Amino acid sequence: GLPEKFMISSKGGGMLANTIGDGIFTGVLAAKHKKMKELEITTSDTSTLGKFVGYYSEHCHMQVFKALHLKDISHIRALPVEFDKESQNFKLKDSYIDVIEEDVKNGLIPFFFGSCIGTTSTGAFDDIAKISEICKKHNLKLIVDNTFSPLQISPIHLGADIVIHSLTKFINGSSDTVGGVYCASQQFIDDIKNVNNGSCMLL
After folding, report:
1. Strand, helix or coil at 3?
2. Which of 58, 135, 52 is nearest to 97 (CA)?
3. 20 to 30 A Cα–Cα from 13, which one of 98, 113, 132, 164?
4. Contact by Cβ (8 Å): 146, 117
């Protein structure tokens, strides 16, 4: 087994379980690459790339912002969350639709939307089916962090393009084994793994 300092029971040290971060980064990379192929542009077209805009719920994992920043996205929108009295839960404010529509009106290019089902801090549940409608309208890739409830809810069936969750919690729950899951359609996965031009081949 691993040394005691790597176990969750230790008083210091430990292993950085970055599996969700890796999944999110791959999702942002895949979404950006897909949009570039759709627009038939290359990395040299800095004018068009400078118009790319990514969105995410402010309750999403902090790695979403980091991934967007690392991929040189100039326009990053953290979307506000509110407490919904009817459902007794936190959720995205409906104003995100107006934000996206306004960006499109102003000539920006939406390409990515980060969402979540359950969060560590508040247990916030986003309305994936509703979010997917605006994403499909403007061809954004919708990525959902489903670590909270992978056995109960399937965001793919609600319209998500990419679903990630951490296997670390389900292997043994003590952080001495790490793993992550990145789920999408077979066509999507095959495309990003393409040895010639797949986005995962560019990591």
Report:
1. coil
2. 135
3. 164
4. yes
Q: Tell me which amino acid residue 189 is.
A: I
User: What is the spatial distance between Cα 197 and Cα 128, in angstroms, rounded to a whole number?
Assistant: 30
* pTM (2 d.p.): 0.83
Is the pLDDT at 1 greater than 90? The verdict is no
CA dihedral 181, 186, 191, 194 (to 10 degrees): 80
2-11, 99-108, 166-175 — most confident range: 99-108
| Tokens 């990591």 belong to residue | 203
User: What 3-state class would DSSP assign to 26?
Assistant: helix
For residue 56, give both structure tokens.
Answer: 């995410």
- Where residue 177 falls (left for φ over 0; alpha for ψ -120 to 50; beta otherwise) is beta
Alpha helices in 71-184 (DSSP H): 96-105, 128-137, 168-171
- Cβ distance 126 to 91 under 8 Å? yes
Per DSSP, which regions of 4-96 are E strands? 52-57, 75-79, 81-84, 89-92
**CA 174 → CA 14, 104, 134, 140, distances in Å?**
11, 45, 38, 36
Q: DSSP secondary-structure letter at 176? A: S
The per-residue pLDDT for range 44-85, each reduced to its tens digit, is: 999 999 999 999 998 887 888 888 988 889 999 999 988 888
